[in-house]
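Changelog note: in this version the structure field was regenerated for every chain. One regenerated record is shown below for reference.
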Amino acid sequence: MKKVAIALITAVAALSAWAQQPKAIGKIVNVTGLVTVTSGSRLSNATEGAPLIVDDRIITTSTGGVTLDFDNGCDVTLKANESIKVSDTNDCAALWAAVNPVGAPVAVAAAAGTSSMIPALIIGAGGAAAIIISNNNKNKSSGS
């Protein structure tokens, strides 16, 4: 019975270690200035040749820049104040589209952490735009 328990514990430990291996899909090159990498709750400075790990976020500061050399042949260059969440997509256009400016307006930045609020913000912004356009058209037709 003891041997079975030890074998089971060893198998579970091996599987959990295997499941937690980060997936490297490229490397960081041409680092200039301050560039940071966030991985979960860990924050570190980007270094030349460091692996690109799926779901890590690469962030450049106002003095930073970096090129991400993906294994699929795509190279994405971040200029100052840009970020990207590393994805294992093979679509180079999608990787470039994932580059975002850093320092979004306060309302958008606050909502970004709460994905359930984003549709409400989009609908609210669309409704506000419709009201403004409608009022503008009324003013034009009434001669004001």
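Spot check on this record: The radius of gyration is 23 Å. Strands lie at 24-32, 35-39, 42-45, 51-53, 57-60, 65-70, 75-78, 82-85, 100-101.
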